[in-house]
Sequence to fold (230 residues):
Amino acid sequence: GAGVSQSPSNKVTEKGKDVELRCDPISGHTALYWYRQSLGQGLEFLIYFQGNSAPDKSGLPSDRFSAERTGGSVSTLTIQRTQQEDSAVYLCASRFRGSNTEAFFGQGTRLTVV
Amino acid sequence: AQTVTQSQPEMSVQEAETVTLSCTYDTSESDYYLFWYKQPPSRQMILVIRQEAYKQQNATENRFSVNFQKAAKSFSLKISDSQLGDAAMYFCAYRSRTGANSKLTFGKGITLSVRP
Fold:
């Protein structure tokens, strides 16, 4: 596709359930980021994938959060045993290799935990 | 660690007027990028303008320009001839030019409203 695609656009889940959020980056982009945007807050870094290197997971808030990137393309962010404080917009971005390239964002997934 | 601060949560501007959004950052690095992103209600982050720290000249993109003060670690965005479509949240962001993790570090954003 032409841009970064995220699905679903909106997700409502019950507390305690697991959810999976998907990100399709721009074709050829080697770097992929996940961010979380809580209401009225800035973007909080979660995880970063770059090519075949080990991902930087330093931003994941707890061990309930995990992410993988298969074949260097599609990424899935999984939240286990969701809590109400997980409610937020989850944004994905991708970037081509090179220090001077810009990151392109998807439209995000709005997660609501009830 | 780098931090980005946007101290104004909201601003308002009259259509066709000029508005300046403030941003300060903290870093020990000398080589980095600074960005302003726009986030309309659609949620999609759109890059407005980018500044390389090694360039002294302030970046300009049509009605958008920056005032980059490296010594003061200040990076403000000026929007000239404001339009209704400029209403959105604006985020200032920092990215290192070197290092393995070139994540973007964001400020908390500012909500800009444009009065007709």
Q: What stands out?
A: The radius of gyration of chain A is 13 Å. The first strand of chain A starts at residue 5 and ends at 7. The mean pLDDT of chain A is 92. The interface with chain B takes residues 31, 33, 35, 40-43, 45, 48, 50, 53, 56, 58-59, 89, 91, 93, 95, 99-100, 102-103, 105-108, 110 of chain A (CB under 8 Å).
